[in-house]
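Hi,

Apologies if this is the wrong queue. I'm a grad student, and the batch job for TonB-dependent receptor from Sphingomonas tagetis produced an output file that my downstream script rejects. I'm not sure whether the problem is my script or the file. Here is the sequence I used:
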Amino acid sequence: MKTVVSLIALAASAPAPALAQTTQAEDDTIVVTGAGIEQPRDEAGQAITVIDARTIDTRQATDVVDLLITTPGVRFSRSGTTGSVTGMSLRGAETTQTLVLIDGVKVNDPSGIGDGYDFGHLLTGNIRRIEVLRGSNSVVHGSQAIGGVVSVTTGVPEGGFGADASAEYGYRDTLNAKASVAGTAGLASGSAGLAYFRTDGISTAAPGTERDAYKNLAANARLKLDFSDTLSLDLRGYYINADLDYDSFFGAPADSADVSKIDQVAAYAGLNFAPDSSFHNRVAVTWLRNDRDYFFVRGDIADYGYSGTNLRFEYQGVLTPFEQAKFIFGYEHEKPDYDFFGFGSTSSAKADIDSLYLLAIVKPLPGLALTGGVRHDDHSQFGGAVTFGANLNYSPNDGATNLRASYGEGFKAPSLYQLYDSFSGNAALLPERSQSYDIGIDQRFDANGRAVLSLTAFQRDTTDQINFSNVTFTYGNLDRTRAKGVEATLALQPVEALTFTAAYSYIDARDRSTGTANFGKRLPRRAEDAVSVSLDYEWPFGLATGATVTVVGDSFDNAANTRRLDGYALAGVRASFPIGEVLELYGRIDNLFDAQYATAYGYGTFGRAAYGGVRVRF
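Support response: The file is valid. Your script probably expects a header line. Output copied below for reference.
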């Protein structure tokens, strides 16, 4: 406890850059995950956090997860070095129950055991915005959105031409470089970026001595053609190629020569047309391909591998008959497909999913926004699923106070692996279902939004949760779980040069499967308490300094709660200094006090590490 107190005291005394993370009133004015379209934040009755470009640059984080864990309600586990399998849980949900979007493309892997998304390969690169919605929301987003939604966006052109680049070097021969360019000309606007990361890494197995290296190449591009005020074409693409040395072990952790390679493509092509100002339409096709190859020893031919693809067609209409009402409706068709090879056999499976949804946003009184909707999904294997959702946001004083309440239903279709795997699949699986409730308040203490406090209480009940049975050695709808808790955030900017942010969450996530040995026990790898504090200050002579402290409580590594993972506290400091208007020097130290900890039993974590770099902007 003394260590935790001293670390928080350090964060409270360390300076950092001005406006590194703006207050909510400036930062979160527009959100997209709540209704699937851009809307003012004071319309949304759900708990949403935005991490903006300024915060991403200031924090100097390499992994997207390292930014996410400074927001409330997030827990994560990483299986070793950078690039290793990384799962993220929202409000105590399974790591497979988070829907992930990159530039509007659903990137959950159809070839994964539970259609989950591996955050291990998602580095910050040229990502400029991250939006996190906490709570079930399948009306808008369909399957996977039981815990919530994470939407990642790359750079969007804002007029004129610009370019930036950065390169940093540090601990374990780590190189991190990226560059991007954006501009507009006539009817066209576009951006493109390239990011490269490599490190010698650490041993994935905690007691190991062999370093597990990692390489990651990411590219992004977007092009928008505005043919007229009513018609435009939108093209986007995101690509990741990664190569990871890792330790695969059963029983006692040990070094091994295993290698994995990933090749991921996400693409979007959309046509936007509006016959008049009250009726907007979007038609789009999205494509995801995720290839994962595994080698027992590095070589040219993989020993086994998986390939997941997902082709989606989307239509969305937005009708605004008058200022106080908006109707959002749509149709989606997707075709997930997975293939497996290895161990002398191959297997494949595919499905078709058709979805219809309707959402209404009405403002019957000044300051009051009501949202409600329904969705129907029809899966070619398990049949239909209907979900409902509703929320409200009320401000009695022109936005100084916002009262929020929401009810959301979630569902998650069984993955193709869980349905059709020749050894453990079960074609009779039902979708996982959830009911999520929350109530909250956002309070602004001054007209400029320099002091904002947000509090939220939530509960989610999940039924028919899919789990692997060690008795039948197949997947089944075995579990019921409940997660409840509170979330709090505080953003302060007492003077222009000083920014303080803090986030706390308490999550009580437990197994509620009656008649089982684990009834009432905590769900694995989900600590009850977590707090993160950041302080940033810009000195009069231009130097910007900052610190972040994250404290995570104890958790358990297994469902039986017999293997404990001790809590930990991580502190990081950073600094940057501009040289003229184009050049900036920056550096940071992660895990300042060299804390020894684990987020998954038997897997290694980084100790103290220092990095320095240079950034240029044109």
